[in-house]
Amino acid sequence: MLTRRNFLKSGIITMGLLTAGEASGARAAEAAPLFPPHAPLGTGQGIHPGRVVWTHDPEAVHWSGMDFWWKPENFDAERVLAMTRKGLMRLTGEDTPQKAWNALFAWRNAKNGKEGGYRPGQKIAIKVNMNGAGENNDDPHGEFGVSYGNPLLLRSLLRSLVRDGGVRPEDIVVFDTCRIFPDHMRKLCTGGDLAGVRFSYRHPGMADDAVADEKARIEWAGAVDGIPTYFPTCLTEADYLINLANLKGHSWGLTLGGKNHFGTFINAERRVTPAAAGLHPNIINGRMGDYSVLADLMARKEIGGKTILWMLDGLITAPSETVTISPENAAWEMPPFNGKPASSLFFSQDPVAIDSVGADFLVSEPNMRRHNGNMRDNSGMENYLHEAALLAAPPSGTKYTDGHGANPGSLGVHEHWNNAEEKLYSRNRDLAEGIELIRD
C-alpha cells in the first residue's frame, strides 16, 4: 500500500539520485545563495534582541552508522549537557546556568506583565518534533531510522531545567499531539532526578494521551479548509513553553521551530492532524507574499505568548522528514564541520531569528542541497519568516492575531548572513537592528 509516508519517502529519496547532468548543475549551483539578500525585517526579540547562540562540539557525536542513530551511546552525554548549559548562558549573558534559567523565566513573565521567575506549581510544556518516531504504530526504532527528537538531548535539557533551573519534574510535560514517544525515550527521560516528568502524545484511551481543550479552538487568519482543530490541554494549562525543534530538511523545504508546531494542535484525525486541519496546501503551494499558517501559529498567545526558549537540534541532521539517516547524508561539508555531523545546537528567544539562521545553514550546506532539491530552488519556503517578522503589516495583507483579538506585532527579526564562510549578520557588524549570531 502506498501510504503518504511511503509516497513522500520515495519522492525525497529520488531527489538524491540525480543524473550526471543534474548532478553537474547541482554542484554549479552550490555556491549560489538561494534567498535574495535584504535588510533586516522586523524587530529583534529577547534579553539581547535578535541573538542566536550556536554551540558546536565535534566530540559530542560519535555515531558510526552501525546502529540506530538515537542510541545514547552514540553521543557524549556530558558534552551535550555542557553545550546546553553554555548555550543558555551565552543567550542570556549570565555566568551560570542557574542565573540563565531565571533570566529566561523572568523575561517571559515581564513580557506578560508579571514579576519574578518560575515558581513551584507553574507548568512548563516542552514541544518536541517526534515526526518519524511512528505514524501508524509504536515501533521503538521509528520507521527505517528516520529523524525525530533526540532522546539524549531532551534528557540534557530536562536535567538542566531541573538541576539548574530548580524546576520540579512533576511541573514538566513533554508533548507531541499526533506522534508517539518510544519506550526507550520515555524511560531515559524519567529516571533518577527526572522522575515525575510527564509525556503527552497520541496514545488513545490511556492516561498520557494528548486531549483537546474544547475551549481553545483555532480560528485561522487565512483561508484554511479543514476539520475543527484545537490546542491541547497540556499546552493551554502550561505557564511556559519550550520549543525543542530539529534542524532538518522537509519534503516542503524546512523543518525548524515554526514547523515544529504542526504537532502542537489536535483534532479528530490523530495520525494526520495537520492534513485534516487543511494546512498542507498552504505549505506545499505557498509563495512569497501568501498568508502563512506557520506565522499564524507562531503569533498565538498559547505559543508565542508562552515561549521562553527556542532551540534547534543539529547534532545529527536529516535532509528530510522521511529519509533514513545515514553517515553519508548526515555529514556536513562546509567549515567548521569538514565531513562530520553538524554536532550543533542553537538557542534563541527570537523565533524568527533562530529559524532564519537555521535556514541559512541548511541551504548553504552542499550535502543538504544535494539530497533535497528544496535547498537549491524553493526560495518561497522563507515566506513565513517575512510574514512573522512583519506581522503587524505583513506582505500578504493578512489580519493576524494572537487568537484573542490582538495583533502581537513583529514576532522577531529576519535577514540572511553575508556568506557561508563568515556567517555574519547585521548585529555582528555593530548595526542597530538584525540578528546577532554568537558562536561557541
Looking at this protein, list some descriptive labels.
single chain; 440 residues; 14% strand; alpha/beta; eight-stranded mixed sheet; two-stranded antiparallel ribbon; disordered N terminus; globular; 29% helix
Task: Classify the secondary structure makeup into a structural class.
Answer: alpha/beta
Secondary structure: helix percent: 25-40%
Number of strands: 16
Number of alpha- plus pi-helical segments: 15
Distance between the termini: 47 Å
Which oligomeric form is depicted? single chain
Poorly predicted regions are 1-29
The major sheet is characterized as: 8 strands, mixed
Radius of gyration: 20 Å
Mean pLDDT: 91
Overall number of structural domains = 1
Strand order of the largest sheet: 5-4-3-8-11-14-2-16
Percentage of residues in DSSP E strands: 5-15%
From the spread of the alpha carbons, the general shape counts as globular
Please explain how this structure is put together.
- This protein has about 450 residues and is α/β, with parallel strands linked by helices.
- It has one domain (about 35-415).
- The protein is built from 15 helices and 16 strands.
- The strands form five sheets. It has an eight-stranded mixed beta sheet with strand order 5-4-3-8-11-14-2-16, with helices on both faces.
- The protein starts with a helix and ends with a strand.
